[in-house]
Amino acid sequence: MTDANVRAVMKRSILVGIASVLSITHAACSPVDGRDRDADATNAADATASADVSDGSALDAEAPRDAAALEDRRAVDAAGNCPADLAACEYPGAALPVACVGCTSAVPITITDPMTGRVIPLAVRYPMRAGSFPVVIWSHGGGLLANAHTNNEQWGDAIASAGYIVIHLSHVPFNESTAVATCALASIPPAACMQGTDPNDSEAPLVTIVRPRDVIAVMDQLTALATRLARPGGPTIDDTRVVVAGWSAGSRAPSMLFGATRRLTPTITRFTMADRRPVASVMISPAGPGFFGFFNDGPMDNSFRAMRGPVLVMTGDNDVKADNPTLTGAIRRGAFDLQPAEPSRGLLFSRLPRGVGGHETFNLEQLGDADPRIDRLSRALRSTMLAFLDATVRREPAAIAWLATDRPRLIAGDAEWTRR
């Protein structure tokens, strides 16, 4: 596709109108800027309640800026890099106001997994617009935590503002009964399942099982959850378009649900929990072979060879944790390199050296950093995520065209963008 065609497709997509703008109110809504959540959500709803937009004018007001940015891309293509204003290269996703329920303890949302008895807290970020929206189920990083559903707000806000309902779940610690039930679900005797270790330890087989199982429990209850969260004039969950995503340890559920296998115990060496319902997987800062049960015994026998797509992987040379320095970017990218070669998969790999940004950069925690190298990478991560979602979930021509260019690399500045 020529650059002229790319610009034309993207421009047509940007000018598509939104059918309606209706009010949304909820007792625990939180706009993205973090101000008083209840008051701001109500004020925002009041401000839009009288606007009945059906002619596309909601986006027409933004069209001159976007059209100008798209025209500037001719200079980008001619020079082979992005201008000082990175907006000329970034994917022009939607920028809808965002609210959240469950982000504070005032109105807790929980589901109970009937198979394990685990009570799973949730936070739901959503665009403040009427309509049916795709769902991104987000698995947090770190260990098993009681309140981690309130983490990863940077990614949650970015994705929700692009027109997705983001469900953050907390992978809570085990108690004795939930640990035994989770082991039984995988048909593993508790002694082998726990291996005499703390069942909440990141290396314990129980943790390998429970992260994808928690996500499956959320998918199983999406219809009921949609009913619980429904409000007149508010957004609704489209449970036919579900994406699983996560950062760091949170990338393990997206990988396993798409067919990755792991060594669980000395006798269970090929364990997976594949599920056909999600339509796309996003793995940010994944573990590679040699860590947490992922393995590579050759091209026909490794953890990732049977993964289906579409899959987006984002990591880099600077994606290193101080407390786990041997898990390098070169190892992390094995989660992409060992997958089957097909065009529904993409890798954004930073070439920034260790010490320039870090593991937290990939959690979008350094967007706007004073170091322009870190800010560029952060903006590339955000743009690539949003374009991937729109391309794979919505089949947006503009997003498909954007991913077909070298813009993810150009924004990042020192990076690799690979599709295969």
Tell me what the structure shows.
The protein has 420 residues and is α/β, with parallel strands linked by helices. It has one domain (99-419): Alpha/Beta hydrolase fold, catalytic domain (Rossmann fold). The protein contains 15 helices and ten strands. Strands 1, 2, 3, 4, 5, 6, 7, 8, 9 and 10 form a ten-stranded mixed β-sheet that branches. Strand 4, helix 5 and strand 5 (165-169) form a beta-alpha-beta unit. Helix 1 (3-14) packs antiparallel against helix 4, helix 1 runs antiparallel to helix 14 and helix 13 packs across helix 14. The radius of gyration is 21 Å and the shape is globular. Mean pLDDT is 81; it is low at 1-75.
Looking at CATH, the homologous superfamily is Alpha/Beta hydrolase fold, catalytic domain
Percentage of residues assigned to helices? 25-40%
Coarse shape: globular
The radius of gyration computed from the alpha-carbon positions, rounded to a whole number of angstroms, is 21 Å
User: What would the average pLDDT be, to the nearest integer?
Assistant: 81
Give the domain tally: 1
User: In angstroms, what separates the terminal alpha carbons?
Assistant: 17 Å
Could you write a compact summary of the structure shown?
The chain is α/β, with parallel strands linked by helices and 420 residues long. It has helices spanning 3-14, 37-49, 57-60, 63-79, 153-161, 176-185, 190-194, 205-220, 222-229, 252-257, 329-332, 334-337, 372-394, 397-403, 407-412, and strands spanning 98-101, 109-112, 119-127, 131-139, 165-169, 235-247, 280-284, 311-316, 345-350, 415-419.
